[in-house]
Amino acid sequence: MTPRAATALLLLVQIFLVADASLDNSTDAVGSLEDSADEYNRIDSDEDAAEPAPDDDEPRTPTEDPGTRHDDDDDVGERLLLTPLLEAGHLDEARQLSRVKGAPFPDHVESYSGFFTVDPQFDSNLFFWFFPAEKNYEEAPVIVWLQGGPGQPSLIGIFMEIGPFSVAPDNVSLQDNPYSWHKNYSLLFIDNPVGTGFSYTNNQSGYATNQAEIADGLYTAVLQFFTLFPELQENPLYVAGESYGGKHAISLAHFIHNRNPSANITINLKGLFIVSGFFDPVSCLHYSEFLYQVGLLDFNEKKAVKIMEQKGRELIRQGNYKQALHVSNSVHVQCNSINSPHVI
Ligand SMILES: *[C@@H]1O[C@H](CO)[C@@H](O)[C@H](O)[C@H]1NC(C)=O
Ligand SMILES: *[C@@H]1O[C@H](CO)[C@@H](O)[C@H](O)[C@H]1NC(C)=O
Ligand SMILES: *[C@@H]1O[C@H](CO)[C@@H](O)[C@H](O)[C@H]1NC(C)=O
Ligand SMILES: *[C@@H]1O[C@H](CO)[C@@H](O)[C@H](O)[C@H]1NC(C)=O
Ligand SMILES: *[C@@H]1O[C@H](CO)[C@@H](O)[C@H](O)[C@H]1NC(C)=O
């Protein structure tokens, strides 16, 4: 299956998941709308300054066995910062240290994880988790997977969408995902931008304020990834972004395309794909007609959602982004309350 076919399939699966559920008017939907708004206000507030990360950024030593670290609930170990090792040319050591081992992670899934420093001035570091393709590793395309939000960790992609395992119903152990994309593709998940998931900075000024800064950080991380896995440098690379991550995918791909001609490490960028993209609100806020045509909204629901969409676009045009976000969230809640993990 080509990545393009895979994306189409994922979209179809999402639509079909929705098809057998009914539009629901539950307080949950209202609750998540309020949550989203609260979340937004919180992010928007200057009081919520950078929480300085603990001062524990010494790279882990090879004598520590990462597999035993979860035994002590109070001690989760130290962050594995790989950049100093890469800069010193200690690739084997970096690789060995980043290998994910031990319960609850299944032995038959090989993976690597750690942090790449993307801005030394502010001590900004991106967290990644890499799953080599099970089949045809030498030739298989590499897919960079970026979650949306903004602010969603790419662990969502691993545990809930395309990764090798998910959390089992006991809420403790992991179960295999037989449809994991890592069977045929190498998958690089990155928590992006800095401040998302495990990715962090030690200075308020380390947070990205525009797409160029986000792309720059991602690009730096991808270059370090190919330094750590030089055998993959020639493999086709696809950048995938879900939802708002579509924006990051476009930015990163554009950045690679521009940088490649003068770069020391040329990235074999072949394409990008956007899953349930939400990268341009004015043109994306048009779900009602499509969802009506495929039978997911009835006539009255379509009319109601369409009014909200028009209102959202109008508010954007007026520059009233906070209200626009509120309305746009209502559209999402309304459509997603038909009960998909992520319809739009
Ligand atoms: C949705 O909730 C409102 C307020 O509780 C109620 O008036 C309305 O009848 C509900 N609609 C449906 C379809 O249940
Ligand atoms: C797992 O977590 C969910 C969500 O919190 C909860 O509904 C469910 O009862 C939990 N299952 C077990 C076995 O604890
Ligand atoms: C992997 O590719 C094989 C054929 O190349 C296909 O049969 C299989 O379904 C693919 N697996 C996944 C999980 O996409
Ligand atoms: C953050 O960076 C600015 C600009 O370089 C610097 O003036 C400031 O001292 C830094 N703050 C901390 C907490 O490191
Ligand atoms: C490429 O590598 C050379 C030699 O290591 C270095 O001097 C140069 O700055 C690098 N160029 C870029 C664009 O990184």
TrEMBL record:
Signal sequence segment: 1-21
The family this protein is said to belong to: Belongs to the peptidase S10 family.
InterPro entries: AB_hydrolase_fold, Peptidase_S10, Ser_caboxypep_ser_AS
EC numbers on record: 3.4.16.-
Name this protein carries in UniProt: Carboxypeptidase
Organism phylogeny: Eukaryota, Metazoa, Ecdysozoa, Arthropoda, Hexapoda
Composition skew (Acidic residues), residue ranges: 45-58
Keyword Ligase attached: no
Major enzyme class: hydrolase
